[in-house]
TrEMBL record:
Keyword S-adenosyl-L-methionine: no
The Renin receptor N-terminal domain, residue ranges: 48-298
Keyword Plastid attributed: no
Domain of life (superkingdom): Eukaryota
PANTHER family in the cross-refs: RENIN RECEPTOR
Subcellular localization: Cell projection, Dendritic spine membrane; Cytoplasmic vesicle, Autophagosome membrane; Cytoplasmic vesicle, Clathrin-coated vesicle membrane; Cytoplasmic vesicle, Secretory vesicle, Synaptic vesicle membrane
Sequence ranges assigned to domain Renin receptor-like C-terminal transmembrane spanning segment in this UniProt record: 306-381
This protein's name: Renin receptor
Amino acid sequence: MLCSIGTSGQLIVAVARRKMSLTNRLRMEAVFSVVLVICSFVRPGVHADSLTVLQAPEFVSFQKGDWPISGERVPDLVALTMGFSVQEDLSWPGLQVGGLFQRPRANVLVVVRGVDSLNFPQSVASYPLENPVPFTLDSVAETVHSLFSEYTPVVLQLAPSEERLYMLGKANAVFEDLPVTLQQIRARLSQDGSVLTSLPLNSLSRNSEADLLFLSEVQVLHDISALLQRHRHLATDYSPDLYSLELSGLEELSRIYGKDSPQYRDATAILSSVLQKFGEDVYRLYGNRAVVEVVTVKTFEAPLTRKSRSILESKQISNPGSPFNLAYKYNFEYAVIFNIVLWLMIILALAVIAIAYNLWNMDPGYDSIIYRMTNQKIRMD
């Protein structure tokens, strides 16, 4: 009520102050000024986009706080959580420096369009998202593939609504059966084990195109988790994995039914529970060493386009003998070799110091057999 006063409230105050004493006028002006200052910061009913960390290992330290992060720096945040370097330092207090020799085995980023926030029963931390521009994890994907191409890294970027798929690495054969196009996903909904038999649809209909789009995205999350369950070796190898999923079913539901519709409310509740379970399943599959983030964006400021690529495409690594002064390929055994060399050097340094100290304090006449024999020979002469 107070924040709705505006300019009309100022006019009322100007008229009323003529009939007040000086003391009452000063009090009223002070109260009105405080109300205007408070209303300048408070915007009732407006929620900001958010970045929510559902799961994270103990050695990846996310601090709870109201620290906003720009949308264009989300790829840098993902790279830092995986232990990679970035071109520009991220001066953001939400992520603290973790262990030097411990890195997560996977990072899963889910972008949900059409909603500013989701109510998750459990989460590590949540932060406001500023400047929600479209972003991709291409730079992180290229880093993973270039450093761990000898192993089987999973690099999967998928947007079911736009039928965009981007895959790298030798693990592509595992995801050959993953439905990609909307036609394939809708056919999957009619098969055994689909989410239609386990989800409480309530107001959602199986005959609506918008409802089927949303349910198709939920089906993709279920199928990815099921594939990882059957191929657990992908979660136990030496290479880190990267997943990037973009869901826009809620955006379509809000456009057709509206945000106050029962379909939108039911879909929001379903997606919150499905993402919570999906994060827990992935976190458990990777031995509690996976980071799962959810970015909720009401709308992007610019459209995002990407050329689709073949599901079996595997980019060739660069020639290590090229004349471009490239760094050597990272080996996962680097941490082990580094520890061996480090502690061996420390032990040798301590040994040299101990030997030097004993030699400095040695008495040649009593501690050295050479000088002892020399003294006896002198005495005999």
